[in-house]
Structure to design on (136 residues):
């Protein structure tokens, strides 16, 4: 199977997250919502505990595709639906796993479908990236 056939896996990665990761992301993004660093606040609004930022999860999900492309300028469009949160345990953290497969071959672009999971659950739905294929 060539890299451009429908169903071909073009990239895979796993991203370990810790509470420290969330603090660093909060500082970089300016998103200091306490549900991302305080269990008591997260639980007071009905959450199981501290959650990873949705945009952090979304950013991690596209990174293996960007690495495969070798140039972020080859990304034409990127869309996801947030379907489940990623709880980050204070002791063991969390691991987000990404598998990127060719979903469609167009004349000058590819649609890459992302399967993004935490544990056995998909956390991003309809995660798709349209890209200009890498050369060579």
């Amino acid at each position: 199977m060539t890299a451009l056939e429908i169903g071909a896996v073009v990239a895979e990665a796993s991203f370990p997250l810790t509470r420290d990761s969330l603090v660093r992301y909060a500082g970089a993004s300016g998103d200091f919502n306490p549900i991302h660093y305080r269990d008591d606040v997260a639980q007071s609004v009905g959450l199981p505990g501290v959650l990873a930022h949705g945009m952090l999860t979304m950013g991690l999900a596209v990174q293996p595709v960007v690495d495969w492309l070798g140039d972020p300028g080859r990304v034409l469009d990127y869309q996801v639906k947030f379907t489940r949160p990623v709880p980050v345990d204070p002791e063991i953290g969390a691991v987000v796993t990404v598998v990127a497969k060719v979903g469609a071959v167009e004349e000058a672009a590819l649609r890459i479908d992302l399967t993004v999971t935490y544990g056995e659950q998909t956390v991003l739905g309809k995660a798709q990236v349209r890209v200009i294929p890498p050369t060579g």
User: Anything to note?
Assistant: Residues 82 and 124 are 5 Å apart (CA to CA). The domain at 9-18+52-131 is CATH 3.10.129.10 (Thiol Ester Dehydrase; Chain A). The helical segments are 19-29, 39-44, 54-69.
